[in-house]
Amino acid sequence: MKRRNILITGASSGLGKGMAIEFAKKGCNLALCARRLDRLEELKTELLSINPNCRIVISSLDVNDHNRVFEVFRQFRDELGQLDRVIVNAGMGKGASIGTGYFHANKQTAETNFVAAIAQAEAAMEIFRHQNFGHLVNISSISAVRGFRRAMTVYAATKAALTSLSEGIRIDVMHTPIKVSCIHPGFIRSEINETVEKVPFIVDTDTGCKALVKAIEKEKANSYAPSWPWAWLHWLLRVAPVGVVRQMS
Ligand SMILES: NC(=O)c1ccc[n+]([C@@H]2O[C@H](COP(=O)([O-])OP(=O)(O)OC[C@H]3O[C@@H](n4cnc5c(N)ncnc54)[C@H](OP(=O)(O)O)[C@@H]3O)[C@@H](O)[C@H]2O)c1
Question: Which stretches are annotated as coiled coil (predicted)?
Fold first, then answer.
């Protein structure tokens, strides 16, 4: 197997958990972190029942504690011997229209989705540069391609920044054995959108995570998952009139 040892942040629910299940089915060793350790312990038991041959290591981590990000990534590398792929997935979607009194929520989303993603990318790339191999995967969003209003304003901006960050890192290490991918999920049911009823083209967690893993394993620079309809729709979204974009949030 090409990438056997995989670290996933934000693995306690939703996409992180779903991707862990898919990679366990493929026989990967997994290093999983999030703040809710009890959820990770349950997931570890579930993964070992799916595939007892996998090595599963877990750690509690708040990605906004940047020093801990470096510590935990290095500890995982030491426990598994090497890291072949790191998936920067931890994220949140709290927020409200700018200027309506929710700076604290918008700031928390900005710090978790972008500043902490820089810390995770730094920690992963330090290890990959030392190993001279590895695959960095940043989980952005389809919302990275346009500006959105209301609760999605800062969220979409963080994802646009993450897509740009991914490209910058990729250019930095082009012509080396280190690969950098940015995945733009469409709408996949998880805790982040559990209270939102009408979401266009939403798929269940299993379907979404299978599509994510398929996209990750292709190791392309940029992917849209599930590929139907997002591999096509993102082009339309980029040129859609603002009136159409306004209807989407
Ligand atoms: N679902 C979608 O439709 C969709 C679409 C596009 C992009 N995404 C992206 O996919 C990623 C995963 O989201 P999801 O849909 O799976 O949502 P989710 O079910 O709410 O999961 C979010 C994960 O991130 C972790 N997390 C949040 N804040 C953290 C922090 N400060 N430190 C460490 N871990 C933290 C959470 O774990 P703890 O609470 O245990 O720490 C949880 O495991 C996010 O980056 C999101 O933006 C999702």
Answer: none
φ and ψ of 104, to 5 deg:
-60, -40
**pLDDT tens digit string along 27-81?**
999 999 999 999 999 999 999 999 999 999 999 999 999 999 999 999 999 999 9
Contacts 24+ apart (CB under 8 A), 225-231: 225/183, 225/184, 225/185, 225/186, 226/186, 229/186, 229/201, 230/142, 230/184, 230/185, 230/186, 230/201
Token pair of 194 as six digits: 């559990």
Is residue 14 left, alpha or beta, with left meaning phi > 0 and alpha meaning psi from -120 to 50?
left
Residues recorded for the chain: 249
The catalytic position among 76, 128, 155, 224 is: 155
Protein residues with CB under 6 Å of any ligand 1 atom: 10-16, 34-36, 39, 61-64, 89-92, 112, 139, 141, 185, 187-188, 190-193
Q: Cα(228) to centroid of ligand 1, in Å?
A: 22
For 189-207, b where at least 16 C-beta lie within 10 A, e where not — what string? bbebeeeeeeeeebbebee
Active site residue 155: yes
Is 181 in a helix, a strand, or coil? Answer: strand
